[in-house]
């Protein structure tokens, strides 16, 4: 990332929506494509075709405002990922690939304002894993430091054969992967009160993690893959004992997984966006201090408004532990592949 001390604060979960006009969005689909309406006075609207999707502020697209917010909050670095509305997984694959190239180019331009502070993450047309590999390869060559994906594509979870092949490709590139919940299940029963965000997102993330574990997908994906799940892994940590118990007692649970779920926690990271020091304490107990990284969900209002506050208030962490969660783990997670060092001190 740079030569600064590894104790600087690094936020791995921060979104952008680059300035993309309605006419440009038709690259993805003729109707209903996402674009950004900038209204003036620091306000705007995420649009889905002609429909207003969500009001937003200039921090979502203005790098100067973003850096000012980071300075005020004491955040040294953000890993910058697109807003999930932009994924485009329902579109025709070749159009989605062109769309992702456009989005990725705009993210690079946005991050170029402060290359030592903003780490660009690309997006890919995950509905076509072969094209996704091509887009990720181009993006990595252009300067992207990781890839941001949704946790499923329609009814295909992350353990889908094509998606696991894409994850293996990312491992080969040395490209870290940030998995974000989206398009939540049970939407017809989660009307109002932001229940898709409050309940659906944790459920989606739990489903993704258990799917990788119980399907045997982690046995097929290279151990070198750097994979992080947003929102603290959802309900995963609290329900891990339930999953282990089921694996031990029912052959249909363990049919495709040679090891209990708890033995796979060393295969991925999670962010810290759980908003309660007690919940974070459990998460750290389950994952270990080396696999939890600060994530705020900036700049959205449901994110952590004081970055790192939950980590600093978490009981039982010493100064070295807090330094790892606030920045050290992320420094290693996003380190260029040639700079990674094994626990024995040798470069991988």
UniProtKB/TrEMBL annotation:
Entry GO CC: cytosol
Membrane-spanning parts: none
Gene3D superfamilies: Metal-dependent hydrolases
Alphabetized UniProt keyword annotations: Decarboxylase, Hydrolase, Lyase, Metal-binding, Zinc
Enzyme class: lyase
Keyword Membrane among record annotations: no
PANTHER family: 2-AMINO-3-CARBOXYLMUCONATE-6-SEMIALDEHYDE DECARBOXYLASE (PTHR21240), 2-AMINO-3-CARBOXYMUCONATE-6-SEMIALDEHYDE DECARBOXYLASE (PTHR21240:SF27)
Name of the protein in its database record: 2-amino-3-carboxymuconate-6-semialdehyde decarboxylase
